[in-house]
Amino acid sequence: MGAACCKDAQSVVPGEAPSRLPTLDADLRTSDSKLQGTGGGDSSHSDVEASRLFTLGQNYEKGLEGMPKEPSKAFECFLQAAELGHTRAEIRVGFYYDVGFGCSEDPERAAYWYRKAAAKNEPKALFSLGLCYAKGIGVAKDEVEALKLFAQSAELGYDRAIYNLGYCYEQGIGCAQDLSRAMVLYRRACDAGNAFARQRLGLFAARDGQEAQVDAPAA
After folding, report:
1. Under a CB-based contact definition with an 8 Å cutoff, are residues 118 and 149 in contact?
2. pLDDT in tens, 72-121
3. I need a labelling partner for 160 at 20 to 30 A (CA). Which of 6, 78, 124, 201 fits?
4. For residue range 39-63, what is the model confidence (pLDDT) as tens digits?
5. Any alpha helices (H) in the chain, and if so which ranges?
6. What are the structural domains of the chain?
7. For the CA atoms of the chain, what is the radius of gyration?
8. Considering only CA atoms, which of 146, 192, 180 is closest in space to residue 165?
9. Which strand (E) or helix (H) includes residue 94?
C-alpha cells in the first residue's frame, strides 16, 4: 500500500488548497437564473419547491439577489431541498457537514449525504465520498473503496477524480503501483483543465530528464 492520504486537504495528493469551500463552490456553480431539480425533468410540486429552496440557499450562501451572506440560513435551505431529493443540495449539505460551515461539523452526516447523491451516479458526490473513504472521514478508511469511487467519478469525466485516480496509481494507494497508467490519467486530467495534473506531469518530465542525463554516456 502506498503513501497515506493527506488528512486536511480535499484531494488525496498534497498540494490542494486547505480551504475547501471555494474549490467545491466553483465545482457546483451554475447559472443562478437556471433552476435545476433532481435532473429527471419532473415538474412536480416537490421538485419545484426543491429547486426554489436550493436557489434560495445559493443566494444566502453567496449574498445574491439582495440577500445577506448567512451560512446557517443557506444550510437550512439546502437541507430542506436535500430532503426533497435535490441532488446538488445533497452534495452541498454533505459539504457543509464536512467542514462545519453553517452548521456543526459532522463527518458521519457528511458521508451520508454524499452517499445519497453518489447513489444517483453524480460525479462530484462520487468523488467526495471517495475522499471520505481515502481519509476515513465519517466512514472507516478504505483506500480500495476510495479508488473505486474515484474511478466511477473519473468515468463520468470529473477532472479532479481523474487526477486523484492517477495519483493513486502513481503511489500505489488502493492498488498496485502503475506509473504508465498514472501518466495516462494525468494527461486526461490535464486535457480537462486540471492544474494539479499539469504540475504532476511536469514533475514526471523533470525526473525523466534527470534520469536521461545520468544514463547518458560521457562525451
Report:
1. yes
2. 999 999 999 999 999 999 999 999 999 999 999 999 999 999 999 999 99
3. 78
4. 444 458 889 999 999 999 999 999 9
5. 20-28, 45-62, 71-83, 87-99, 107-118, 123-135, 143-155, 159-171, 179-191, 195-215
6. 8-139 (1.25.40.10), 142-219 (1.25.40.10)
7. 19
8. 146
9. helix 87-99
